[in-house]
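Handout, section B. The chain below has 687 residues.
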Amino acid sequence: MLGDLVEVSTGEFVGAFEKQLEDLNDWKARIAAIGQVKAGKSSTLNALIGNIGFLPSDVNPWTSVVTSMRINIPEDPECGARFDFFNEEDWDRIINGDTRLRDAAEENLPGFDSEVLREQTEGMRRDAERRLGRYYHALLGSKHEYDMLSADLLQRYVCAGPGADAGLERESLGRYASITRAANLFMRSDDYAVPTIITDTPGVNDPFLVRDEFTCQSLDQSDIFLMTLSAHQALTEVDIALIRMVAMQGDKDIIIYINRIDELENYPKRIARVVRDITNRLTNAIPEGQFSIIFGSARWAELAINEDAKDADIAEVLDDPNFEIFLSEHRTSSGQTAREKLYAASGLEEVKNAISMAITNGSGARFIDRAKIEAITQISAVKAVSQRKRYQLMDQIESYGAGRISEYKETIEDDLLIASEVDNALEKLLSNVDDKLDAIINDAWVAIQQEMDVETGKFIRDQSAKIEEIFNGNADIDEDLSIELLPLRVAMEDCVAVQYEAVRNRIDDILQNGLNRALQTGKQITEGLESRISMDLLPGETVAVTFTTSRKMLSLNFVSKRNWSFWKKNTNVDMSKTIEALKKVIAAEVYPATTKMIEAYTETMTNRVLSGKQRLSLIKKIVEQSLDNRHEQSRADQLALSDNASDAHREKMLNRLQSDIEVIDHRLRIIAAKENYLLSEAMKAAA
């Protein structure tokens, strides 16, 4: 439909429809797989994409790199992979740590030995150099690309852990994993009706903090979250915290898959208690959250899909009396063959259906709704310009036919004067709106930085009692001093959410007021558009910042028992200075996360403003297009409007004007048909 509208539109509206068409073609369903180690996340994904053994699914080694499976993306290769390596700057941060944190510690904490920080990361450098040899430095900042995919290829770039270390003799296992920033896998599948990106994350507690940033970025960009839990592993606080972070963003869909139920004793009965326990804990922890909870076994799905699976292994599952009981009590449809029964029992079909519904009613529906609003708004603008031009052409034909040429000349001059005055008035109005919005964005940026500083200060003061106990010798410290960062993260998230809502409301008021005034200013030209141009469904209703601070614990490993003794034996040390020093260190630690939060906050706010201003500027575009049309018409008719024009020339002009009207009528018929379809039940059904 947008392609047709590009063909029949004129002027700047062609580019507007082309941009919408580009956005439409660029849309993808984005799914992030999350879950703790040993839950079977990679096995679940292998079954979901129908490629058994593709992602590393053993507990050891494990996936340590953000891995995106790009399925049916039009611009991607049919098959292949791209592995991006850390650049020199990223790698320096991995090996040497955050210089801001180290400098703050050296400046403010007596007895701090910066070498302690480096000791933990030097091992990574040595391992990388041992694996990659003379290619080590050359690979940083580069990438490897392939036109094929295999499990062995993938394991070279994404595997980590003792299993990978033990495989040093085997060059394929984890050879490049330590320096791989992200993996992109290109594939095609008939099972996916829309372009889809499924991101397998290594978890948000990866010790590689730079890689952790890419994990967080992937989570922020995702619309649907598939969380895999183990049936025999209790729902941990980490799981709840992660689900809570997703649930805070109201436009995210959460699907929880309880895996490995076949490992439960008497699983047909036990699974009901497991589901009930998980549901109750989630309801208590996140009362406002909504989740799809599905249970099954990825291993069963693997056996069902894997053509090389042994009949004896399949029979072992089906011959268990618990299996038939489970099918009859927990599955409405179980299939006929052994493999069909296994797949039905696995729960993977329910997972696929839940993902489909999340796309249809969630991210896909929201995108379609916004696209419809934008298309209808642009259509209304094209109609307004076309109808006005048609009216002017009809008036010109009537004036010619009645011999009122001098009267028509005056009409043109009046029209040009009115349109020019309206255009100038709109220019001033839009400039005033721009200034107000710029001021709000600037004020909001300063305010959120100040609020973040305040929250950090509150958090530091809350830690004072703990520090004082250790300082006064009332508590011993055998390990590094660790400070739980979750309360600070929650406080920052709440702060951003509250601040953003207030700023968004101010932005929306200015945009809506500007729209009302613009429509009033241009009403002689834009009459009838009041109900068609609105500020509905602007992007950025909420801001996604909940994944930018992924570290749960700040471990001050330079404040060890050895270094604490500095304070204990120096009674002249001012405790207030110690707390102030600690404040600077913690502020340096949370600075990168705070910066990302502010960037996400500002970007979301700016996108909302830009989208609103684009709709607002449509009114000026209509006036400008009408003004251009009138100027063009005046120049074209200059000879015909002169007293020296012959009757033959005027007759030719009348025929041309009539043809122009027919072209406009054709355009209006097509546009009206597209508009009716956009608003019809057929469009809703197609979506």
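Note. The chain has two domains: 27-363, 439-624. Compare this with the example in section A.
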